[in-house]
Amino acid sequence: MMLTSTQIGELAAQFFIAGAGTLSFAVLFGCPRKSLPFCGLVGAVGWFVYELAVMLGADSAAASLLAVIPSPCSPGCLPL
How far is it, in rounded angstroms, from Cα 8 to Cα 19? Predict the structure, then answer.
């Protein structure tokens, strides 16, 4: 299945919005300043993977599993 330009645009917009939302919660909960960019990136990538999996036909449970697998492996989760 090929993605249309509209779907790609929606994915790009949602990537940045998810990153901003995750970053906002990281600031609200007082995460260390050094880890803030990684927090936003993990949220954005997780949402991107979830939405892409749903667009490609995965059900919500499988898409959620795919989206959270890379999160513990991210550099922001390592002790600074």
Answer: 17
Across 24-42, b (16+ Cβ under 10 Å) vs e yields: eebeeeeeeeebeebbbbb
What stretch of H or E contains 25?
helix 5-28
47 neighbors 18 (Cβ within 8 angstroms)? yes
pLDDT at 2: 85
Judge contact between 31 and 51, C-beta under 8 A: no
Cα gap 22→61, rounded to integer Å: 21
Mean pLDDT, residues 63-73? 79
